Amino acid sequence: MNPLLKAALRLFAAPRVNMREDYERVRRLQRQLAALPRPRYRAASWRTIPGDVTSRVPVRVFEPQERRRDELLLFFHGGGWVTGDIESYTPACATMAELTGADVVSVDYRLAPEHPFPAGLEDCFQIVHRLLEDPSLAGRDDADRIVLMGDSAGGNLAAAVSLLLRERGYRGARQQILLYPVTHWDHDPATAPFESVRHHGEDYRLTSTEVQDYMQMYVPDPLARQDPRVSPLMAEDLSAQPRTLMITAELDLLCDEGEAYAHALEAAGNEVRIHRVEGALHGFITLPRFSRSLRDAYEVINTFLDEGHLAGSRETPPGGTA
């Protein structure tokens, strides 16, 4: 990256925002930015997944103008478990539906600090579990067509849900797409095990200070941050996990830990594909659809889904039977 662009990006570095004090203001700003210009999509509707009334979690459903595949992308948004919601991610989900040709279901899980760990995770788990057990709730007759997907903290939640499904003895998803996820608990440049935290933790869109603030709000107990449900890389057993696409961003402090998790999944016998988007910053999935980074990622995502569709009849879903 040339020095002029790098200097410009430093102006937007997150240490200038104290997330623990300003998260509500950031939430409002995100919603305002997402509403301008007004996103275009064929359909968006609120639903709740039937179940115990105390555990209903709202979702928003996005349909592409032209449906080109049967998969349903069950999406968990990013935002450090603290910011982000269905409204702020509506443009990204509408783009997701159009560029994949698949229905997208965006999950409105509870946010910290009002609802710390494991509240948001349990919301995501309940949605995934119910849809895998009864895909007709999502208009599907085959649970293998449900693909877990998330970016950043949402990628963390998708990975953690997959681990929980196996741990609790339930059927798992056959495929998951993890976009620059959080997979480890330590993002202090002085102690973190990953060089990308030191190389990219101060200059770009997401900083180590911001991630540490998010982690403190999501999991107030420092010891609990090493729980595999928070830090999937800490899991002792990564077997029987979904076929996984790991997409990382070259200039993201989370790049190394995302790829480390992918390699750990592969070492445990899972099918994994890793793709690093060159020159990309954290959060690029929310960029306009003409962005090179976004187009690069969706080419890989569509190939992954196409290959998974062809292989689907020969595979056994994690925790289930063919």
UniProtKB/TrEMBL annotation:
Coiled coil spans: none
ATP-binding is among the record's keywords: no
The keyword Hydrolase belongs to this UniProt entry's keyword annotation: yes
One GO molecular-function entry: hydrolase activity
Alpha/beta hydrolase fold-3 domain mapped to chain residues: 73-285
InterPro entries per record: AB_hydrolase_3 (IPR013094), AB_hydrolase_fold (IPR029058), GDXG_lipolytic_enzyme (IPR050300)
Keyword tags: Hydrolase
Entries under Pfam families matching the protein: Abhydrolase_3
Gene3D superfamilies reported for this sequence: alpha/beta hydrolase
Protein name per Swiss-Prot or TrEMBL: Alpha/beta hydrolase
